[in-house]
Fold each of these.
Amino acid sequence: MKLWNRRILEPSPGSLRQTGVKTLLVAIALIGTTVSLRTQTTPAPALGIRVSIGRLRSDKGQVVCALFSSAAAFPKNPDKAVATTKSNISHGQAVCEFSGVDPGRYAISVFHDENSNGKLDRNFMGIPREGVGASNNAAGHFGPPRFNDAAFQYPGGELDLPITVAYL
């Protein structure tokens, strides 16, 4: 009877090794399952138009971006834009993203809303007091740039556009 009790209470060294190996294998399997679950639930980056805005003279305020599909309101009336978005500024740069955009011909206008009032401030002659920019870095002559000068073809997928802000 002592031998039988001894075997139950004191497993052999070989069985301890087997139990340790089994425990290690189960732990590795659990870690692998956790890692694979994390990679499966991570959402894919949104596809669309990503606008990198540079040469902002300060980090004050925000950048307002508008995406237009026609010349009708470009760039003066962002209320008629296909989409608008705002972005914070860091180290003189900002990024605006437009997701879910259908392929087509578009133009983008941006302005540095330094006082965060949501509108482009102008002087008594109508000249912008805040920085402005457009896709293709199109510039106007005695007025805003033309839609055709700022227009670009968006084929779908992911598109990166740089825009440099100018202070007039």
Amino acid sequence: MRPAALLALLQLSDSAFPTGSFSHSMGLEALVAGGQVSGATRLEAVVAEQLYALASSDCAALRATVRTSSIAEVAELDRAVSATKLARESRAASSAIGTSLLEAVSAFELDDPLVAELSTAVRADSITGNLAVVYGAVARALEISPDAAVSSYLYTAAAGLVAAGQKLIPLGQTTAQGVLYRLGDTIAGAVRRSETVSAADLFSFAPLVEIASMAHERQRVRLYIS
């Protein structure tokens, strides 16, 4: 990978990058409130379940987006990603974070037709702007490889969930970093799994997380949007 592409990838995956992802727990808050996640071991297991679900849905779509220059194909992938997210909060979060990512990378002034078309379509509400396809389009424009883009996407998701768990359970900083480090093998496995799913066969199976996301929107006291 070119040094410039690596630096851009690190910037995209930085928790300070302004996508608003820190405001979402993806159902984890409901699991903690319900007593289903109360320590580091359970947090690691739930995050691992979410990562494997993302591998066959978001990450497979991300790979396909990196490899295409067709806005029509991106629109189809965007609809397919939405269809894998059963909970309303999950769909809304993916769209909100994806839209914020598009707005943030406008500062890069990328000379890329696909990113420009995608930005126009999202503003016109003709494409939802799921995070996976936006991330893929931006990675393509920055000449980031599919494997590197998927690895970064999954690491960012894992880091965000562990950070949420650290606040909600709560966990100490050292313990949380241990959880994130141990998820490395899970991330690597999810990257490999994403290669085996075609863009026409996206699917997600994470019933615990999906049910928690559905319950979360009716939770009376909340720190997170999702």
